[in-house]
Amino acid sequence: MNILVIKSSVFGDNGNSSSLVNTRLEQLKSQYPEATVVVRDLAAEPIPHLDSERVGAFFTAAEERSAGQQQIDDFSMALIDELKTADRIVLGLPMYNFGIPSQLKSWIDHVARAGITFRYTENGPEGLVEDKPVTVLAARGGLYAGTGNDTVTPYIRMFFAFIGITSLDFVYAEGLNMSEVKEKAMREAEALLRAS
């Protein structure tokens, strides 16, 4: 069992989504004590945002790459290898200003690679990553699930489906900036995790 953990809170382990990730991870470790766990903390080890240099490296043929371009490609391929070899993924997903954290977008930009994690066919795009369970632990300051203001859930579903992963399970902790709601929301989210 290989478990890939992705934390995307700017607050690291102090973030609400990271707290839920840690709860889920402890569960999985007790279920699978021999599991190999890879933790990708995107705040502690930020992934560079895409720029012309990085995109240029991706689109340069391997035999024509400079040493610097090869290093960029190697980094991207290491992230893709973590994704492909994982049997399960646990994703901590805060909502910032109605979107995903920019550091998570950088991870997505490095793993969404044509011909590697997806390809275009006559019938449209086809994912090249084997389906696997993904637990998405979504923490939000307000109440957005099931409303038009939740841009995060459909985006994450669409991205993972695009590369071939459709087995997503969302657990929401909402209203976390509403003091009377926060403790109840975190308790309910943790109870859902324990029941799963």
UniProtKB/TrEMBL annotation:
Enzyme Commission number(s): 1.6.5.-, 1.7.1.17
A molecular function GO annotation: oxidoreductase activity, acting on NAD(P)H, quinone or similar compound as acceptor
Cofactor note: Binds 1 FMN per subunit.
Domain of life: Bacteria
Pfam families: Flavodoxin_2
Residue span(s) of domain Flavodoxin-like fold: 1-191
Catalytic reaction(s) noted: N,N-dimethyl-1,4-phenylenediamine + anthranilate + 2 NAD(+) = 2-(4-dimethylaminophenyl)diazenylbenzoate + 2 NADH + 2 H(+); 2 a quinone + NADH + H(+) = 2 a 1,4-benzosemiquinone + NAD(+)
Main EC class the enzyme belongs to: oxidoreductase
Cofactor: FMN
Keywords associated with the record: Flavoprotein, FMN, NAD, Oxidoreductase
Purpose: Quinone reductase that provides resistance to thiol-specific stress caused by electrophilic quinones.
Assembly mode: Homodimer.
Family: Belongs to the azoreductase type 1 family.
PANTHER family: FMN-DEPENDENT NADH-AZOREDUCTASE 1, FMN-DEPENDENT NADH:QUINONE OXIDOREDUCTASE
Protein name in UniProt: FMN dependent NADH:quinone oxidoreductase
Annotated source species: Parahaliea aestuarii
Chain's gene name: azoR
